[in-house]
Amino acid sequence: MIPEHVLFANDAFYLAFRERDLDAMERLWSRNLPVICIHPGWNPLTSRVEIMASWQAILGNPDAPRVQCYGGRVFQQGDIASVVCYEQLEGGILVATNNFVMEDDEPKLVHHQASDCADPPAPPQESQVIQ
Predict the structure, then answer these.
(1) Domain, as residue range, for 32
(2) Through-space distance between the first and last CA atoms of the chain, rounded to whole angstroms
(3) What is the dihedral of CA 74, 75, 77, 80, to 10 degrees?
């Protein structure tokens, strides 16, 4: 897998989350392989049906957190590419792992887990133009 394609898919995941786009979220998850999703404080969800129902509930909730991703790094492990990144929410920062496999010539999610992070790096500052 090409790391830039994996990072693009990871960005698409967070864009779907931020935009509350269930259709986009649904397209990002594998249809052919076992999938796992562990939302912070939740038990593991281990079927695509459960995972999509969880995203429908989260994305349909107007009080669900707005998430910004930063610091993504790709780790290639055979046929799996893992992105480890940080999720900035209003109440703090989580660390997340998103695992991707190639399916239909596109990186697809097979695993997402986010949890508390004891000592996260600071989010990047806004870009500034110096004249």
Answers:
(1) 3-116
(2) 40
(3) -30
- Residue 96: strand pairing partners: 85, 114
Q: Is the dihedral of CA 27, 43, 35, 99 positive or negative?
A: positive
| Full strand arrangement of the beta sheet holding 36-38 | 36-38, 106-116, 92-103, 80-89, 68-77
7 assigned to some structural domain: yes
pLDDT tens per residue, range 52-104 = 999 999 999 988 888 999 999 999 999 999 999 999 988 889 999 999 999 99
- The domain that holds 101 is classified in CATH as 3.10.450.50
What pTM, to 2 d.p., does this model score? Answer: 0.89
Q: What is the pLDDT of residue 125?
A: 58
